[in-house]
């Protein structure tokens, strides 16, 4: 059924009228930061018909023709491909035990639905595998998502993609965006930093890789891997948006921070000195992803507005930021570690110019990795050795010395290519360029760097050289264009970064932020760890029969400064605990760990009975249900058949009478304790089931019981049970039990 994506010929349309009538690729939305001041002063945005935007930009074409990155005939093909909207692509979460079942269901049940379907007279192509993605777990459907949504015959496919995305089984992600995390080669013990993480699709890949091969079967083994992922973003709003993307994966090994990547503060750790005393050291990361802010001209197929907004000034203004982020990343990288630098731009001044400048300054410590044997099916071009440097008006300058005086502080020497002999010695050809026309994707640049020696101050030259950029950056672009720079490119935020790069500047920031017990972050509820001797926590462990060798009491944290359980309890691993504990005053933590237990009050009638029994006022949160189940004694988990599961999902509340007397829940309902019970439903024999098992949190009150589950989760399970979500469409989201009156 499937043919490699690069064998599917993407035929460019010959003129604009044909392109606009080809409705597979009609209106699309673009992602961007909201402009304007306070919310009350914002004016409603006018509707933009993307079909009316001419897909042409004279300056863009002139600039890239001058660069001559490709032969003339190939450049024409690339340009025509840019005018066609991106296909729909997604990947399956590899670390789920049921990943193969997700793939088989998609291939055998949903793909045949596409065969023979048409949209406005055009035949819809059959989905294809992305050949270079490991495990045959990524697919492309060569139509925009809007067509899937508008085609009645594809409604089941749309529901499948939507609900499987919500529950974390798949991620809808642009194909080229999947590349950088694959080259990082993350292992379960690695300390990983994603410097510019929002919106989080690459971060999700890193988390999945961290949990690959993790062992939860041994009764004496921790249920989570020892490594962690720190996902950072400079924009506060987008850092909080990361939480939704990350929560789908239910990982206790993730923390989200909100800092400018170009002067990312150090993460402190305590270690034992030679004489046994406690010593503070800076954490070094095994893997770092620097998917930096960029001009985004590889995203024309997705961001239609770029056709009228593209200007070289954006790339010129971001070059300094990109150098500084890469520089800071290498400072934070452990010796022997790997850093991936990537952009969604095709511009050499954002790519090879940045990488070569850093390689020259760190020669003897950092090198480009030969990745020719990694992802062999990925079609890529090598890095280029020559490029032209122009100002914002496309005037070319052969060298830095040719610049007029008004541009000297705006265009640093690092923009120009090094002599070819130096670039050859640095192996700049090991950089990777992915062009849109080669595999029906967006444009992308990737460079894999390895730090094989300590830097030991070798970067002072590049820091000094870029001081001029710091002084002249804001003069390089107009105020209006500065706002454009702040628009996020796909999987990155094209914001103007602050201008600090030195290690000692980061140390200075640590000191400033530490004053006043972290006053800068008072608006954020602090994370605090609960004492393992806390009576409330002991009661929770006793009630749910949790094995404290698999889930440790000292690794639970709360969102208050006192470490007292009053609401939600989050679980983390030991490394994340060390990071939060030692950095609470100078790191802005947005989110950490996975929510496992949540306090739930009983109604008045139930409370009277509960106080006379050993009832627990905490329930298991669905986010952490699987994690909790792996640590609980099997006797404390009630196994139910799928018939009982249907009853639970089809009713907002249940009582004993809701179940047949001979059913499992009908027999044991009275014996269930007041409060939370964890139910396990076996779905192995269900025709459309993806998961082999699902866990349900049931909250039992004096009269009724509620399933504590979000609407999207209910819909996903119903989809697996009967291929329909209609029965769950009107169910409310996770909520407190109904009144017992």
Automatic annotation (TrEMBL):
This protein's UniProt keywords: Methyltransferase, Nucleus, RNA-binding, S-adenosyl-L-methionine, Transferase, tRNA processing, tRNA-binding
InterPro entries (UniProt xref): MeTrfase_RsmB-F_NOP2_cat (IPR049560), MeTrfase_RsmB-F_NOP2_dom (IPR001678), Pre-PUA_NSUN2 (IPR057285), PUA_NSUN2 (IPR057286), RCMT (IPR023267), RCMT_NCL1 (IPR023270), RsmB/NOL1/NOP2-like_CS (IPR018314), SAM-dependent_MTases_sf (IPR029063)
GO cellular component terms, A-Z: cytoplasm; nucleus
The keyword S-adenosyl-L-methionine is annotated on this UniProt entry: yes
SUPFAM superfamilies documented for this protein: S-adenosyl-L-methionine-dependent methyltransferases
Transmembrane segment boundaries: none
Domain of life the protein comes from: Eukaryota
Protein family (similarity comment): Belongs to the class I-like SAM-binding methyltransferase superfamily. RsmB/NOP family.
Name of the protein this chain belongs to: tRNA (Cytosine-5-)-methyltransferase
């Amino acid at each position: 059924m499937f043919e490699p994506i690069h064998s599917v010929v993407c035929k460019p349309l010959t003129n604009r009228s044909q392109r606009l009538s080809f409705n597979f690729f009609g209106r699309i939305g673009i992602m961007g930061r909201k402009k304007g001041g306070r919310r009350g002063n914002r004016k409603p945005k006018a509707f933009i018909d993307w079909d009316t935007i001419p897909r042409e930009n004279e300056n863009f074409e002139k600039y890239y023709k001058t660069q001559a990155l490709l032969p003339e005939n190939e450049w024409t093909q690339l340009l025509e491909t840019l005018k066609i909207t991106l296909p729909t692509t997604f990947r399956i979460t590899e670390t789920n035990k049921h990943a193969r079942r997700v793939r088989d269901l998609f291939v055998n049940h949903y793909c045949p639905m596409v065969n023979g379907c048409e949209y406005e007279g055009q035949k819809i192509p059959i989905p294809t595998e992305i050949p270079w993605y490991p495990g045959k777990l990524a697919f492309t459907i060569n139509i925009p998502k809007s067509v899937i949504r508008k085609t009645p015959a594809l409604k089941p496919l749309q529901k499948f993609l939507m609900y499987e995305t919500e529950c974390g089984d798949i991620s809808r992600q642009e194909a080229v965006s999947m590349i950088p995390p694959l080259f990082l080669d993350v292992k379960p013990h690695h300390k990983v930093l994603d410097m510019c993480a929002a919106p989080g699709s690459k971060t999700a890949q890193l988390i999945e890789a961290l949990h690959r091969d993790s062992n939860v079967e041994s009764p004496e083994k921790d249920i989570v891997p020892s490594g962690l992922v720190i996902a950072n973003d400079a924009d506060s709003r987008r850092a909080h948006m990361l939480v939704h993307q990350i929560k789908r994966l239910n990982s206790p090994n993730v923390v989200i921070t909100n800092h400018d990547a170009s002067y990312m503060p150090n993460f402190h750790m305590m270690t034992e000195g030679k004489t046994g005393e406690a010593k503070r050291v800076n954490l070094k990361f095994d893997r770092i992803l620097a998917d930096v802010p960029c001009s985004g001209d590889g995203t024309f197929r997705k961001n239609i507005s770029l056709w009228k907004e593209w200007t070289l000034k954006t790339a010129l203004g971001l070059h300094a930021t990109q150098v500084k982020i890469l520089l800071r990343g290498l400072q934070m990288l452990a010796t022997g570690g790997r850093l991936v630098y990537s952009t969604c731009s095709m511009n050499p001044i954002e790519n090879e110019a940045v990488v070569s400048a850093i390689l020259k300054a760190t020669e003897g410590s950092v090198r480009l990795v030969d990745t020719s044997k990694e992802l062999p099916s990925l079609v890529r071009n090598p890095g280029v050795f020559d490029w032209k440097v122009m100002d914002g008006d496309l005037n070319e300058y052969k060298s830095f010395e040719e610049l007029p005086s008004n541009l000297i502080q705006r265009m640093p020497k690092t923009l120009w290519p090094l002599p070819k002999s130096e670039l050859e010695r640095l192996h700049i050809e090991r950089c990777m360029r992915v062009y849109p026309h080669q595999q029906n994707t967006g444009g992308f640049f990737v460079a894999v760097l390895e730090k094989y020696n300590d830097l030991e101050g070798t970067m002072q030259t590049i820091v000094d050289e870029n001081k001029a950029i710091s002084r002249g950056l804001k003069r390089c672009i107009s105020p209006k264009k500065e706002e454009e720079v702040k628009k996020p490119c796909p999987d990155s935020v094209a914001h103007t970064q602050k201008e600090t790069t030195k290690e000692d500047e980061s140390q200075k920031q640590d000191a400033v932020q530490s004053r006043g017990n972290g006053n800068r972050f008072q608006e954020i509820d602090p994370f605090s760890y609960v004492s393992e001797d806390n009576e409330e926590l002991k009661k929770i462990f006793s009630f749910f029969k949790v094995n404290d060798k698999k889930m440790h009491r000292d690794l639970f944290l709360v969102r208050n400064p006192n470490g007292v359980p009053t609401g939600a309890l989050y679980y983390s691993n030991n490394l994340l605990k060390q990071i939060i504990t030692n950095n609470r005053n100078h790191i802005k933590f947005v989110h950490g760990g996975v929510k496992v237990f949540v306090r739930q009050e009983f109604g008045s009638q139930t409370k009277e009975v509960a106080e006379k029994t050993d009832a627990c006022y905490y329930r298991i949160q669905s986010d952490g249900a699987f994690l909790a189940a792996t640590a609980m004694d099997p006797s404390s988990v009630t196994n139910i058949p799928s018939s009982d599961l249907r009853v639970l999902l089809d009713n907002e509340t249940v009582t004993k009478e809701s179940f047949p007397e001979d059913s499992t829940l009908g027999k044991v309902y009275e014996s269930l304790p007041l409060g939370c019970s964890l139910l396990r439903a076996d779905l192995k024999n269900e025709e459309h089931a993806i998961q082999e098992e699902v866990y349900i949190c049931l909250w039992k009150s004096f009269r009724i019981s509620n399933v504590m589950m979000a609407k999207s989760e209910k819909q996903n399970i119903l989809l697996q049970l009967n291929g329909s979500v209609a029965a769950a469409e009107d169910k409310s989201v996770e909520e407190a039990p109904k009144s017992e009156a």
